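Before going further, it is useful to explain how the protein records used in this thesis are read. An example of such a record is reproduced below.

***
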Amino acid sequence: MNVGRDVGRDVDGWESGHRAAYGCGAWERACHQGGLLVAWHEEQERGFGAPAPGRFPARSGPRVKWPWGSGPHTVALVLWRTAYDAGILVDEILLADTLPYCDPTAVPLAAGPLPDAARKGGIGVGSAESVAGIRHVLRNHVAAELPQPRPAKARLTLGYRVREVLATPDWERGDWPATLVLARQAMGRADHRRERGTWQPTDRERSTWTRVRLDRKPAGERSAPGDRVPDWPARAAHLADLADALSTDAGTLPRDSQGNPGPLAQVLLAAAHACDGLRTSAREVGRLWAAEPHPPADPASWELAHVPSGLRARTEETDDLLRAVDVYLWTLTYS
């Protein structure tokens, strides 16, 4: 969304664009994305899997208080200012465009426009010293090796980079393989309890397959050959819808004597959690497609330019999980 180069004349429109797209203002969005970039950088320096007692929360809100002038806040200010000057949404900025603001000879950010929250932030916000302290963080993200295949002319936006980071297996905040393992383990535990006789499925539980029917695909979910639409957004949105269906059905199933979800409800909730992890990216990529003024000539290339390979892999493996859950529910019904 471009609101014009002279955004000073339409700051309200610029802010409302962020609220429509992300449910928060530009500064809050910049803090969220900046916090993720910093957390990724810190974990990369330590090595994946290392303990991170000082990790910054990946969100911005009334309960989150980053010290002003800290790494996440300064990165956020660079992101905010880049988007402000270009008149575009924070996620749509090119990461390479943030680097001129980090140049030692650049005018300090504190001397230019600031979000309202930063004006009250105190000493160090946007100073040359604070920006110098985070320059390497942004440089490392700009220089990150992008997985292939990807269109040669595709440029690295902040939104793409964050989707790529969050889809990286084994990262603490994007460890999606672990959610798939938990769902499969829940099926194993339920099977074990049923075989031992410590869980006897009720009629309601045995009929779950006929209610949920994970094998059913809604009309139009996948594009027909020749259609000029990308395939991934619809697939991911469908998985997010299934997350709601699974969670809702789990709420109708019996609980144990302590009021905790029963064995089958745990299976459904774990599968729902795995599917729900695609919701945000599905919404963001779907919005980007809808915002295209004209349908791109090559939807497949468009998809490669907006959906990181890790996110596509996550979608495939989540589909595989749901096929396993579907077979499990069918077996429970007819065994």
